[in-house]
Amino acid sequence: MGLKPPAIIQIETPLDTVDLRDGHDLYAVLHSALKSRAADQPSNTNTLDSYWPAAHFGLDRMASFREARAEEQASILAGCSRDVLAESYFIEKSGMYFAAKMTLLAESAQERMLYSLFAADEAVHFSWIANYAANESVAEYLDHAFIRLLDEILQSADKPALTCIVQVVLEGWGIHHYRALMRDCLDGDLRATFEKIIKDEARHHASGVILLNEQPPTANQQTAIIEALRRLLLLVQVGPQAVVAQIERVKGHLSRAQRERAFAELDCERATAKKLEMLKSLIRSTAFAEAILDALEGSNAFRPYSAIECAAVRG
Questions:
Q1: Is residue 46 part of a domain?
Q2: Domain count, the chain
Q3: Which residue range(s) make up the domain with 204?
Q4: For the chain, does the N or the C end have fewer beta carbons within 10 angstroms?
């Protein structure tokens, strides 16, 4: 008998699914299930407009922010907070789809058990984050480049690519990202939420490294992984576009020179270099990293954009 071909599952991931109407009977069952898995769930009062200070986003270094009126500063900060929470909302929502697909692709009972448990983790994480980011308030973020790329990967990628990109790279990156959010968060309940999510993400990431190293991807699969990572890294290379976009949303259109100054004040090149180095270290943790890193290095995927280059990027 020949080797069994790898399973391929292509799924639709409707990230824009609407919530059930208020008062639906299913909520009682859902809340009971969530409570049984997270008895110490943080309570949320959701009273802040911004859950992070200006320094977290580097806004304190920007003249355009410092010189803005108090109400403009508050609006910019609130927008930056919404960006962070919306991204977390869709990441955790995508995590449920990822775990469901990987459960079906699992090649052993233990692996299937693991991803089934991960799916429950992600459902709890999503419930927590959704307390701070309601469905209707984040709908516009569906068009963001990172969310679109993640959705595309979840729908079409095979098991090795999903394990590498989602578990090893993105969940590994998520640990560091959530630590920074937890460190600077102004709300005690939200800090506690990120702390609990980090513990689960560490398990998800560690198991991804183990599983990927046991079954390295084929040459064709490596090519697909390299292309997906190149697209992901480009979104990092272009610097803190979301922060500058919030300045423009409140203060109006910035000229090229003003955008260059904004990115320079944010020290975009140095800050982005640190993020890219972290992503490189996560890729390096896999047994087949050399070929992938060589290909990415060859296309300058780890080179941070200068302030001038960041300023030229729009959309």
A1: no
A2: 1
A3: 52-312
A4: N
